[in-house]
Amino acid sequence: MAQARTLSDQELEQVLAYAASTKHGLRNQTILLMTHWAGMRIGEVAAVRYGDVLASDGTIRSEVKLSATQTKGSKSRVVLLSERMQGAIAKYIAQYPCVDLKKPLFKTLRADGFTPNTLTHIVSGLYKQAGYDGATSHSGRRGFLTRLSEKGVSVRVMMQLAGHSQMSTTQRYIDTRPDMLRNAVELI
């Protein structure tokens, strides 16, 4: 099976613009950003609760502590949120305020929260409708690690940010794009 397509910054902006035009635009944008800017798995995004992102004073946490039940492989992990990601979550929560810290951050019309499978279909559909065939719910996570690699972040650091236990797993996520190759040879 082919790996999920990674998007350039410009392509991501186009997908986010498309997501904004959908019925639940801000929700869809925030879901996409949690995969692209925080490197979260789609199952983790589906499992995140208001209490995971909101501190007791109502501010957005800089770290999301996911329990073993919220992650792949039944291992708890910490997801670091950049200031940019914290801002996106704050904007979302301003539109969809917390009524119960135990409730899922992203709720559906019929149920409390999305299943990972449903969220996978929604995200893949957003990419497809925006014109990006080959992009899937895993594209954001791959893009997150690829961008970090482009900026010179060590694989060891990326491994911890991704919650991987094997460096080889992290390395498989990193995409090499023509501009990366060109920039590498220009270092000589």
- Provide a count of the helices: 10
**Largest β-sheet summary:** 2 strands, antiparallel
Number of strands: 2
Q: Give the N-to-C terminal Cα separation.
A: 35 Å
Kindly name the structural category: mainly alpha
What is the typical, i.e. mean, pLDDT?
91
Tell me roughly what share of residues is in helical segments. 40-55%
Describe, in plain words, how this protein is organized in 3D.
This protein is 51% helix and 4% strand. It has helices at residues 9-20, 25-36, 42-47, 50-53, 83-95, 116-129, 139-150, 155-162, 167-173, 178-185, and strands at residues 63-66, 77-80. A two-stranded antiparallel ribbon has the order 1-2.
How would you describe this structure in keywords?
mainly alpha, two-stranded antiparallel sheet, 2 strands, 4% strand, globular
Task: Map the helices and strands.
Blueprint: H1 9-20, H2 25-36, H3 42-47, H4 50-53, E1 63-66, E2 77-80, H5 83-95, H6 116-129, H7 139-150, H8 155-162, H9 167-173, H10 178-185
Antiparallel strand pairs: 1-2
Helix pairs in contact: 1-2, 2-5, 2-7, 8-9
